[in-house]
Request: fold
Amino acid sequence: MQSPIADPPALEAGTLRITPVGGLGEIGRNMTVFEYEGKLLIVDCGVLFPEENQPGVDLILPDFSVVRDRLADVVGIVLTHGHEDHIGAVPYLLKLREDIPLIGSALTLALVEAKLKEHRITPYTFDVREGQVENLGPFECEFVAVNHSIPDALAVAIKTAAGVVLHTGDFKMDQLPLDDRLTDLRAFARLGEAGVDLFLVDSTNADVPGFTPLERDIGPVLESIIERAPRRVIVASFSSHVHRVQQVLDAAHAHGRRVALLGRSMVRNMTIAADLGYLKVPEGVLVDFKKAGDIPDDKIVYMSTGSQGEPMAVLSRMANLEHQIEVGPGDTVILASSLIPGNENAVYRVINGLTKLGANVIHKGNAKVHVSGHAAAGELLYCYNILKPKNVLPVHGEYRHLVANAKLAVETGVPPQNTFIAEDGTVIDLKNGVATVVGQHDLGYVYVDGSTVGEITDADLKDRRILGEEGFISIIVVVEAQTGRIVVGPEIHAKGFAEDERVFDAVKPKISAALADAAQNGVREPFALQQVVRRTVGRWVNTSYRRRPMIVPLVIEA
Reply:
């Protein structure tokens, strides 16, 4: 339910203000703004990837209007981990003020620095580790290790005189993690003992019962598939999933195969991870893609991007026969990732395309080739019982995930009135352990389309959808200025509607009659006559063809 738009009041002294800017009601665009004593602290700044109903859009950014006029007050951006939905929008925010400090772990900062280099921005970065406590303006921040599907993820406890807020970032509680880095429940317990006034907690898997399976269960499955594969193996994953790439490298090495990395982001991120020691590359296993073609088909594994069906990613191009690697019978394709909500159609289209080419496609639906990076309901219950937070704000998830998370909080004893099902732009004030909703900003999507940022509107996307799905009809009519009599036309041209333009012979007399009626009634103004043409053609198309194309009439006075 959309909250009524209401500007929040001026911030009272001794009050901490929390404004989620993105990540509520969606999987992506994660960004939260904290305000205290006139200063702002931002946690995460991510992107959302477009769905099929947003044609032509490259990325979707958080709406920076909450901070745009107060950039000088921003003391830093804390980045919980290196996934795109948490760091992808950093370049666009730093274009507004380049020297905002970026705070995060070594891998997170290395990934964002590589991204910023492409935007020709040299950031000011501050490397932190778990257990570290730093003062950022009036905010005391303690960083806590959490386990996720990327190394070096951190939760952050933000402490002010108004209260203590714990933001988990993305996390799960894998008890046998591949990198031996557990979610630090001892730190959670210590913070809980001292008192957590507001808990911002990952909701992505809140509606999944039980516990998220172990990452290390995936390794033997990948080994078995690679061992039995008769020809080439192509594994698609997120370009930042270091653990999954490690498992593929180890499985390939165990069975005498070489590995070639495909996709610019995959090569960039894994080079960074290897340089920093997060990725252990077996001797001689990696091979440059340009040389991979010389290796026998049963001795090569390709590690690619495109597990979400992204149209320009490697796997989609393979499915469309637009890549150098031509997938065929005997090839094995593994989609080693979960489905991000909204991407289902795109992913199944890729699976169908690869299957049609003869490949054996293995995915989470038919084999255990991926586990989630997010805590399921059982893990969240543990967290609530350990922390005993006074107030809970579920974040990072679609609306159903937020509701499921809030229900878990209530089941563990958090009063219902202290659990907040919020949305992007909701303003919550915290003082003396009491959290209150005080306003709602009117925030929207900011679309990146090529080199333009924020210039494409929802109306533009509606036009694109109409053009793509329903077609385009233009009508040109020349009328006599004094009498309104038709001099030339109507000439009708169409794209994506009908190949034979003789179909419009039926509507031309209707246009002429409608314009004659308008002229008799004294209508002479070209814009008004264009509306007459638009309505006439629109009614005819809808009645005759049940279509709603874009109709562009042009009436010219002679």
About this structure: The chain has a mean pLDDT of 87. The longest helix spans residues 526-545.
